[in-house]
UniProtKB/TrEMBL annotation:
It comes from Marinilactibacillus psychrotolerans 42ea. The keyword DNA-binding applies. Belongs to the type-I restriction system S methylase family. Keywords: DNA-binding, Hydrolase, Restriction system. PANTHER family: TYPE I RESTRICTION ENZYME MJAVIII SPECIFICITY SUBUNIT, TYPE-1 RESTRICTION ENZYME ECOKI SPECIFICITY PROTEIN. GO terms for molecular function: DNA binding; type I site-specific deoxyribonuclease activity. Pfam families: Methylase_S. The lineage of its organism: Bacteria, Bacillati, Bacillota, Bacilli, Lactobacillales. This is Type I restriction-modification system, specificity subunit S. Residues 41-170, 200-363 form the Type I restriction modification DNA specificity domain.
Length: 375
């Protein structure tokens, strides 16, 4: 046995003890992909915190998510020493010299995930028992090797976190610019403008500035995996990072779009957009619009600001029709200003995409090394 204690954290209802300013209460949603995140925080009052003293977490303890996204683990850092917790399994009291990060990363391997899945119960909500984890077997080499492996993967995680942070900062910066580059009302100028422009913006309907084609699904028997046929775009699943990504093909052409056209989803989730580099067939879940980068960014903004929700409020299935799309209103400046705004926001998208690619490559690298570094 590596640990003296493998047990549940607090089990029961803790909501009556929640306070706005108190002791941080670690919950399962704070544990993901091998680390602690505090994007959401719950705090508990002093009385309840002190009552949990016999179950406080300490530096280098390991916690595992017990319900929901079961099996995700993290090591308790020094700044969370003496933290109370809820809905996690706690691994405490090392009985032999062990690198906690080594075990933490071992739980992330495909082999460990498969074994954890075999002892997971529940259909709708997955659950794992502390009693099962007491019987769980791990491979442990000499401490020096554990330490080297743990340090290596920790450096990889730090690199991933760095690029994720850069991606997040760029995304927030772009959102801030979008808020200030577009007017809020017809009689209002944007907060930020390129110095050479002072014209008024016009309020236009989409059908006045773009050729719009609503999709029509081909017959089901014409669908194929043959990339020699026509690319079929059905919805959000066929778009990623601004672009159309071929996924399904069809031998029947119903409605079509050309390279450079904007593709917009008209069914849940309404308003997702991408640009196609190919001639594509439009299924009924999408529409195409002709337009420049400015129009593309304007449509992104409409999605982010919840423009389309007014058409689907109260509906069982979120969707918009041809009239909704054609009569949608956007603000538009002169073409020269459109070009500059579009280029600026496209630069942000390219930088964000670059960081996202780096994150994905590092995650793939980590996944490969995890498979090779553990028995």
């Amino acid at each position: 046995m590596i640990f003296k204690k493998i047990r549940n954290a607090f089990v029961g209802t803790a909501t009556p003890y929640y306070v706005e300013d108190g002791n941080f209460y670690l919950e399962s949603n704070n544990v993901k992909d091998g680390s602690i995140n505090r994007k959401t925080e719950i705090f508990i009052n002093n009385d309840f915190y002190e009552k949990q003293k016999d179950k406080w977490l300490h530096t280098d303890d390991i916690v595992m998510v017990q319900s929901g996204h079961v099996g995700h683990t993290a090591v308790i850092p020094e700044e969370l020493n003496n933290t109370a917790a809820h809905a996690v399994i706690m691994f405490q009291g090392y009985q032999q010299q062990t690198d906690p990060q080594f075990l933490n990363f071992q739980f992330q391997t495909g082999k460990a995930k498969k074994e954890l899945s075999s002892i997971t119960t529940g259909n709708t909500i997955k659950h794992i028992l502390a009693s099962e984890m007491k019987k769980f077997k791990v491979s442990v080499p000499q401490y020096e090797e554990q330490n080297k492996v743990g340090d290596f993967f920790k450096e990889l995680d730090n690199a991933i976190a760095l690029h994720q942070l850069r991606e997040s900062k760029l995304t927030k910066l772009k959102k801030a610019y979008i808020q200030k580059l577009f007017p809020i009302t017809e009689n209002e100028s944007p907060v930020i403008r390129f110095k050479e422009f002072n014209y008024n913006w016009d309020l236009c309907k989409l059908q006045e500035i773009s050729n719009i084609t609503m999709g029509q699904s081909p017959k089901g028997e014409t669908y194929t995996n043959n990339p020699e046929e026509h690319i079929l775009i059905q919805g959000n699943a066929d778009m990623k990072n601004r672009k159309v990504v071929p996924r399904v093909w069809t031998s029947q052409v119903t409605k079509s779009a050309n390279p450079g056209d904007i593709i917009l989803s008209v069914r849940a989730p309404v308003g997702e957009v991408g640009i196609t580099d190919y001639e594509v067939v439009l299924g009924r879940g999408v529409a195409s619009l002709t337009g420049n980068e400015f129009l593309f960014q304007s449509l992104l903004r409409m999605k982010e600001t919840g423009y389309w929700t007014k058409y689907s409020t109260g509906s069982t299935f979120e969707s918009i029709n041809s009239a909704d799309l054609k009569n949608a209103e956007i603000y538009q400046p002169h073409m020269d200003e459109q070009i500059q705004i579009g280029e600026l926001l496209e630069t942000f998208d390219n930088l964000i995409g670059l960081q996202a690619d780096k994150v994905n490559k590092l995650k793939d690298l980590k996944k490969g090394y995890l498979q090779k570094s553990f028995l």
